[in-house]
Write a structure and sequence with these properties.
globular; 20 helices; 12-stranded mixed sheet; 25 strands; single chain; alpha/beta; about 35% helix; about 550 residues
């Protein structure tokens, strides 16, 4: 059996100009990054602005195992399957972070015969967007520390600096550090912190900005610190917004690549869903809707995280209306939710499946609350048994849910034809999309709406730090923004050990921070961290270059 990278390396890629031609894009509207990658120009966006939108399909999932359950694979395979049934489709995905690539979960280019290519490029440096975001964020941090060193005319209180440096790598040693040591010439000593790039506000801003002017405005609105009088200090006060925009001038343009079968794919932006808003860029999604009849996009982790944020933050911000939601489920993840250790999810266990399938039921019901048709994609793994698959199918029938068996990992687009047909049918059904909460609610009311309606929590408690932070958000007049809840992906609760469909649990809000430029309030629950660490045996151990070829990359 070939590995993902071996399948990818044996594929014959189309020149990116030929992929673009399928969508009516000319060579002059591409900015080439080699033969198989290109950025889509501002001129293309301008030309298509009056063209009608296609149908928007969101791919999400149940709560996964730590290894992930094939949401990107399903998205890529569904795009390929759409072509098999004669539909003009494009997929819109997030860019991978180097943290998972070298850590445990893997990249974000799909797998098997439903991949986005060139896989190695995408999972490593791609077109440099992640590096540009890292540089823009850290430039602002450097300018802030320099301002304090050079007289501190804004009166910035070093004890109340909010912006953190970032790095697109799992590195727990940088979570809490001290900068400015070594004497006067090296700056003012203070406590500082690193977060992973995909959790940074600059990443969120890039993904929510509509154009370069909006990008600059949002960057200027980043709340970086407070001064000694307790007044807010923004990035624009440091005069950092212009230079940050210059670093992101090209990064804001979406990237065009292709699937294994030549289906066009737009990849842009990459915020995690457990610690950020989990969706690719507004620009990429809106452009994809102009380029094809169906835009198939995904949101990170389970529907309690990525889909909730896609529907309550991204769609509201960008004025998007999804036509259908695909909910990916696997025997493996349902058995994991039934209490089976991740090392044993490949073995048949109907009892665990019956116990864990309640998790699927909660996700189906939650997505229906948004008024959008739902199709369950049962993503088949080679270790699944007929009895297990039949049990999931019967459960969907009993719960009135449309479903299809997806075999895109092993069969490519051909293995997703039934799913594609079900999705096309769902897109023609009545849809009455509405977010789960009203923006006029208070910060706490919004948090509690998500906690009760989506997570199923009985109550929400707040630490003293969270109460104080919410009060600060209200003082700044930012309490009418959406909320972005940082929470474990492994459970509907904030406790990763509470699997399945937990009831009568409490969500603990540990802290709150304002992402003023992005336009939402981040709510931290449980023990979620914004700088992950590497596992005991990271994937990096297996990655190498042999005879000029990358090996071990999935």
């Amino acid at each position: 059996m070939l590995s993902d990278i071996e399948i990818a390396q044996q594929a014959k890629l189309l020149p990116i100009k030929d992929v673009a031609a399928q969508l009516g894009i000319t060579g002059d509207e591409l900015e080439f990054y080699g033969k198989y990658k290109a950025k889509l120009s501002d001129e293309l966006s301008a030309r298509l602005q009056d063209k009608p939108d296609g149908k928007l399909v969101l791919v999400t999932a149940i709560n996964p195992t730590p290894a992930g359950e094939g949401k990107t694979t399903t998205t890529a395979g569904l795009g390929q399957a759409m072509a098999k049934i004669g539909k003009k489709a494009i997929i819109a995905l997030r860019e991978p972070s180097l943290g998972p690539v070298f850590g445990i979960k893997g990249g974000a280019a799909g797998g098997g015969y439903a991949q986005v290519l060139p896989m190695e490029d995408i999972n490593l440096h791609f077109t440099g967007d992640m590096h540009a975001i890292t540089s823009a964020n850290n430039l602002c941090c450097a300018m802030l520390d320099n301002h304090i060193q050079q007289g501190n005319s804004l009166g910035i209180d070093p004890r109340r600096i909010l912006i953190k440096r970032c790095l697109d790598m799992n590195d727990r040693a940088l979570r809490n550090i001290v900068v400015g040591l070594g004497g006067k010439v090296n700056g003012v000593p203070r406590e500082d912190h690193f977060i992973i790039t995909v959790a940074s506000e600059v990443m969120a801003i890039l993904c929510l900005a509509t154009d370069v002017d909006d990008l600059k405005r949002r960057l200027g609105n980043i709340l970086v610190a407070y001064n000694y009088s307790g007044e807010p200090v923004y990035a624009r006060d440091l005069q950092a917004d212009g230079a940050m925009t210059a670093l992101l001038k090209d990064a804001i343009k979406p990237n065009l690549v292709q699937t294994l079968e030549g289906t066009p794919a737009v990849m842009h932006g990459g915020p995690f869903a457990n610690i950020a808003h989990g969706c690719n860029s507004v620009r990429a999604t809106k452009l994809a809707l102009k380029l094809a009849d169906y835009c198939i996009t995904e949101a990170g982790f389970g529907s309690d995280l990525g889909a909730e944020k896609f529907l309550d933050i991204k769609c509201r911000c960008a004025g998007l209306t999804p036509s259908a939601i695909v909910l990916v489920a696997t025997c493996r993840a349902l058995k994991y939710n039934g209490g089976v250790p991740k090392t044993e999810v490949s073995s048949e266990n109907l009892e665990a499946l019956k116990k864990g399938i309640a998790n699927l039921g909660v996700h189906i019901e939650n997505m229906r609350k948004y008024g959008v048709p739902v199709v369950v994609a049962i993503n088949k793994f080679g270790t699944d048994t007929e009895a297990e698959l039949k049990y999931i199918e019967n459960y969907c029938i009993e719960n009135g849910a449309d479903f299809a068996l997806s075999q895109v990992f092993g069969k490519g687009g051909e293995g997703g034809v039934e799913l594609a047909q079900k999705v096309v049918e769902a897109c023609e059904k009545p849809s009455d999309f509405s977010p789960i909460y009203d923006l006029e609610l208070s910060v706490k009311e919004k948090i509690e709406a998500i906690a009760s309606k989506i997570y199923g929590a009985a109550r929400v408690s707040y630490t003293t730090a969270a109460e104080k932070a919410i009060s600060e958000v209200q003082k700044l007049g930012a309490d009418k923004l959406p909320v972005c809840i940082a929470k474990t992906q492994y459970s509907l609760s904030d406790n990763p050990a509470l699997l399945g469909a937990p009831k009568d649990f409490e969500i603990t809000v540990r802290n709150v921070s304002l992402s003023n430029g992005a336009g939402f309030t981040v709510v931290y629950t449980g023990d979620i961290m914004t700088m992950p660490g590497l596992p005991k045996a990271p994937a990096a151990h297996n990655i190498d270059v042999v005879d000029g070829k990358i090996t071990g990359l999935f």
